[in-house]
Design a protein that fits this description.
149 residues; mainly beta; 4-stranded antiparallel beta sheet; elongated
Length: 149
């Protein structure tokens, strides 16, 4: 009985499933990699004390826009599902992600837009492994230059 009903139920399930939704246009926030960025004059190689991550500010060729950074690391720095967060003020992240941390995006993205407050207050960049559920690294306090100036 099971041998007869299982293939029929499987076939009906395949026939009844909905098509996969397709987005024709992505919002600008998700399409940062397609925008032409140029490197600015700020690069830090020692912003993280326990991780070999380099931080480089980026700017658009046209003046204006939000401050944007790019993160790079060597091939020996491998962490699963690494996300990048911004935390304004003094760093409180030691073993868990603070609730007030702002998600910037995945570590693998070519450009990450910072919140506007990153140019007016000191803050920290937090690297968080989603797969491991742990804070990988916290940067020293840093304030970024306003790209409009």
């Amino acid at each position: 009985m099971l041998g007869l009903l299982l293939p029929i139920a499987f076939g009906l399930g395949i026939a009844a499933r909905k098509p996969v939704p397709v987005a024709t246009n992505l919002p600008a926030e998700f399409n940062l990699g397609a925008s032409p960025y140029a490197a600015s004059d700020w690069e830090e190689t020692d912003i993280f004390t326990h991780a070999p991550v380099h931080v480089l500010t980026l700017r658009r060729p046209i003046r204006g826009g939000r401050p944007t950074i790019a993160l790079t690391a060597g091939p020996d720095f491998v962490k699963p599902d690494l996300l990048v967060y911004w935390l304004a003020g003094k760093s409180k992240a030691a073993d868990r992600l603070p609730e007030e941390a702002v998600l910037l995006g995945a570590f693998s993205l070519p450009a990450l837009a910072l919140p506007d407050e990153a140019t007016s207050v000191d803050g920290a960049i937090i690297l968080y492994s989603l797969a491991d559920g742990e804070v990988v690294a916290v940067s020293r306090p840093v304030r970024f230059k306003d790209p409009k100036n």
